[in-house]
Every structure is written in structure tokens, then in C-alpha cells.
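User: Hello! My lab partner asked me to get a predicted holo structure for this protein. The small molecule is pyridoxal-5'-phosphate, SMILES included with the sequence. Please write out the C-alpha cells.
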Amino acid sequence: MDVFDKAFGWRDLKIAQATGFYPYFKAISDSDATEVTIEGRRVLMVGSNNYLGLTRHPKVIAAAHQAIDKYGTSCSGSRLLNGTLELHQELERRFARFLKKDAALCVTTGFTTNLAVLSGLLGRGDVVFTDRQNHASLVDGVRLSYAEEKRFRHNDMAQLEKLLRETSDRNGKLIVTDGVFSMEGDLADMKEITRLAKQYNARVAVDDAHGLGVLGAHGRGTAEHFDVEDGVDLVLGTFSKSFASLGGVCAGPQEVIDWIRHKSRPFIFQAAMTPSAAAACIAALEVIEEEPERRARLWEITEKMQRGFKSMGFDTGVSVTPVVPLVIGEQWRAWKFWRALFDAGVYCNPVIPPAVPANQCLMRTSYMATHTDAQLDRVLDIVEQTGKKLEVIPQIRPHTTVTVKVASPGQNQFLASAVRAEETPKSLWSNGNVRDERPLHKRLSDVVERVTWQAINTDPDELAKVAALPGKLWRQRGQLPSLLMEKGVGLVMRQHAEPAEPEDRA
Ligand SMILES: Cc1ncc(COP(=O)(O)O)c(C=O)c1O
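Assistant: Hello! Below are the C-alpha cells for the protein in complex with pyridoxal-5'-phosphate.
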């Protein structure tokens, strides 16, 4: 047995690349944030977390340049030892003030902030209550700790309450949730979470990676949006989204921050944020405080895009934020849709299992305050044409009026359940109940593609067993897909022969 066997035997990647669907690791050769160049082609970027568009702000760029001139390119060590700059301390003071907490700690990335805080704070005897859709960094942070984990269904407050009730007060209790859920763009029910925490003597930590700078009248995030800032004990965040930099922050009581600063291995044994990253972040925070109109524009754009997509017949799920997903359906459909959008000049992010359920794959689109209306109209136009061409949406617009719910300041009711409860439009494939009225040859062609996809994702050993039993298979019609597999792969590859050789297209 060789530890490399799994890698040498992994064929999914090669097949996906050969079909031309493979959407990941597309290298950007040039960027002005809202438009980027990929494979020699200019595309509209609606897949970034640069929500306020600050990566190109002159003040942010100048601050990064100055920090490099003054300190060089790296801190060359851990914060604990030689790696702390006055810039880091300034950044921490500013974030503590911004988030209205005693103190703040800045860590080298958002991901390691969560590892540092959870593994540093939680120990044996503690119980941590986590939403099942929490970000991977929170999941891994809990794994690194020795705490017992109790997971509740996404935003299921009744289940959270049951778990809290069952847990003894002798245990330390921490509820950990994303503020904005990063793929679907919905919010944690912070009002109820903070109420339950008070009732059951638990602490609350919110990872507001996608909320800081975006939600709340002052951009202080999900807790400000719901007016429950006092009920949130620890605010966690990242600088790689609205703050146009790289790094992360944890803000909370002074003693807790001091504890993490001295006890947490991911923090202590990691080199400090680079000078330019710290300086860019300070400048971005200043712009966020000085230019609230950016946030207002972002919400205007969010409403425009949600309204636009919904009126075309797209299912935008439970989103109430600038993360606006288009629910497409199965993985092969999502990849195909992604490829068609990319070819037409729009870049967004395809999201597949395990990030979402298998039949709920989606295009995650997200917006910047600096997108122009002309760019957004072009995105809407391309998405609509593509949606029609691939029959993800109907040929004729089904909705003349749609209800749009966004979590802009002042809308602080729990919007996710409101969206779920109402009659949201469903795109043709995100809802298995939609009757497929298309001609037989089109439906058959879909079957072949679906089957092919299943075949690509099937374990070769399992397939070998199936191939040895063709007679039995034929009797069991349900397994027809396996018989179609071979022809299907050929067909899909032929259909997509052109995109299969990206180097020729550059
Ligand atoms: C909710 C959430 N938490 C943490 C992180 C990690 O932040 P970073 O990528 O800046 O390290 C992300 C990034 O995708 C995120 O979406």
C-alpha cells in the first residue's frame, strides 16, 4: 500500500478537465476588480468577495505601498516574538473600537482566526453548539479543540434550544455560527441565538466574514443588523472580503483576547500578517467608516440583481445579501452552465457537494459596490441568454412582479424564514416537481449527460462489478444508467470537444 495510491488512482479530475467543464483554478492575469482577464479574455467578475470594491481604492493601495517602503515585505516571524509591528497594534485598537468590544486580536488569515480562537478557547468539559452549515474553518477549529460538539440543523432554533437544555451548566457552553452563510447568502437567526444563549448561560461567537462592512447601518455586521451586539461575545471576521486585504480578527472581552493571544497554537506558531496587509486593512476600515454610500450602493445592486434573476425565473434560494446564488440543480448541469457563462464573458463560482446538497448545485454570484449599472445589465443579459439556451429558465419570462427581500439597514426581521415561507420562483431544474415538457430527444440527451456524470463519479471497482452482470442489469431497468455510461462519455466529450483544449483557445 502506497500513501500516494489515492492520488495516482484519482481519475475524476482528468475526466472533468477532458470534458472542458472543469471550472477551478482559473488564473487571472490582470484585474481591475469588476473586470478581469482570464485565458486572454476580459470577463465580468461576479464571483468575488470584494464587496465594497476597496482592493482598487487609492487610499488602500497607497497605505500598502507605504507599509512596504517602511517595513519591507514580511514580518519574518510570529506575533509573539519578533513579528509584532505598531501597525498590528493600531489595527487591533481600531477594530476593537469599530466593533465596540474591549479588545481585538488580528490573525494572519480568516481561516486561522477561527482555528486560533476555537482551539485556544475550548477545552475538555466545554460543549460547542454549531450550525450544520458553518464554514469549514469553524468546523476545523472545533475539531482542533477537545470540546464536545453538538450540531444543530441549519438555523433550527428549536433543535438548538433542545441541545442547550440537555447540557449541564457545569459545562462551558459556546454557540458558534456564521453571521452570513457564505454560499446561500442567508443570515443566522441572531435574535433567537442571543436570546437562547442568555437563557441557557451560553456564550456566542459569530463568524461574520461576509457581514462586516456589509450589514448594519455602520457596517458592523449581522449583530448590528439584528440589534443584538451586546449579546454577541466574540465577533470573528476576515480581512479578505470587505477589508480588501488578508488576515482575520477576533473582538471580545480583554481577558479572553489575552488568553487566546498567549495560549492559542495557530496564533502563536504562525507568522504575523504582512505589513502591507495590515496597512491596507487599516485604510479600508477608514474608508468603510467614511464612505457609507458604498454600502448603500451595494444594497441597491443586491436588490437589482435579485429582482432581475427572479423575474427571469431563477431560484435565488434564501439569499438576502449581496451573495445571490442561482440554484441550477445537479452537478453536471451546474458545470455546464458555468462553462457557458464563462464563454459568454461572466465569471462566477460553481458550488457543488459537499458545500450544497447533490441536486441543489448553484452558481454563486456576488457583487461589489463598484459594479456599474452597465456591467450589471450585461451580466443579467448574459445569464438570461445562457439560462434560456440551457433551458434552466423558461423561454418566456414567467414573473412580471417578484418579491425581493434584502437585509439592508432597517430590515432587521429574520429574513431567511420570510423568504423560505413565501412562494419563491423555482428555476426549471432546481425543483424536481417541474414537469419537463421538452421534446423526447432533448430529454434523452439530458439522461445521457446525467448518466455520464454519475459514471464519472462512480468508483471504478463498483463499475467493474456492474459490468460483470449485464443480464441481471437489463432485468433491473433501474440500473440502465450504467449501460449508457460508455456511450455517454463519448457523447459528452464530442459535444464539448472544443473547450476540451483550453490552451488552443488562449
Ligand atoms: C464564513 C467564512 N469564515 C472564514 C473564512 C476564511 O477567511 P479567509 O479566506 O480570509 O482566510 C471564509 C472565507 O471564505 C468564510 O467565508
